[in-house]
Amino acid sequence: DVKVTQSSRYLVKRTGEKVFLECVQDMDHENMFWYRQDPGLGLRLIYFSYDVKMKEKGDIPEGYSVSREKKERFSLILESASTNQTSMYLCASSTKETQYFGPGTRLLVL
Amino acid sequence: GQNIDQPTEMTATEGAIVQINCTYQTSGFNGLFWYQQHAGEAPTFLSYNVLDGLEEKGRFSSFLSRSKGYSYLLLKELQMKDSASYLCAVRDIRYSSASKIIFGSGTRLSIRP
Q1: How far is CA B54 from the centre of its chain?
Q2: B34-47 confidence digits (pLDDT tens)
C-alpha cells in the first residue's frame, strides 16, 4: 500500500525558530513536492525535487529551503519561522500519472 | 506563468449529476489531475488525463480538451459523502525535465438531501 508520511500532524513554534518538516515515501518515487494550503488560496507549491540532491523552486519559495539527501526523504526547512508561515503543509510524491499526499502538518507560529 | 481556474463553490442534490469545470493556461502542459479533499484531510487522487477525451471510473468521469485548455470532472449518482473540495491540478514541464504540479484553488461541493 502506498505510503507518504510526515513527521508531525501538529506543530507549534515561536517566531524566529528554525523548523524542520520531514516527509518520507516508501514507493521509490523520484518526484517529491512540498505545498502549503491556506483558506481561499488552495495548494501552493513551495519546492519540488525530481531526484536526490536536485530541487526546483515552486511558486512561493521565499522563507523556505529543502533538502533531499536520500530518495525517500524530502525535508522542508523554515530558517526563521514567521507568523505568516502558519499554515497546513502537505508533502506529496508522484509517478507520472498519480500523486500521493501525506496527511499534512498543521504548523502554528506564535 | 500558469493559471488554473475553477468555480469556488457549487451545490447539488443527492442522486443528481454535477459537472465541475477547470480551465488552465500553461505552455508546458503534460497532464491534468483531479483530487478530492474532505475537510481536515489530505487530497486523494481521483483521475489523470493527458490525452483528449473522457476517462470513466465508476461514478466519476474526467474530460480533457487540450486545445481549449479545459477539463471537467463529472460526478454521477451523488451521495452525501461526495461533499468535499475538488481540486484541479496541471503538470507543467516547461522549465526542466522535472514535473511541476500546480493546483487551482479548488471547488467546494455541497450535497443537499
Answers
A1: 13
A2: 999 999 899 999 99
The residue type of A54 is M
Which residue in A10, A30, A43, A94 has the most chain B C-beta atoms within 10 A of its own C-beta, making it the best mutation to test that interface?
A: A43
Cα distances (angstroms) measured from residue A93 to each of A31, A80, B21, B27, B81: 6, 26, 25, 23, 26
Q: Which of B51, B48, B90 is nearest to B73 (CA)?
A: B48
B17-29 exposure pattern, b = at least 16 Cβ within 10 A, e = fewer: ebebebbbebeeb
Give the integer Cα–Cα distance in Å for A92 and A96.
13
Contact residues, chain B to chain A, C-beta under 8 Å: 31, 33, 35, 41-45, 48, 50, 87, 89, 95-106
Query: pLDDT of A46-64, one tens digit each?
Result: 999 988 989 999 989 999 9
Distance of CA A6 to the CA centre of its chain: 9
Residue B7: closest CA among chain A residues belongs to which residue? A40
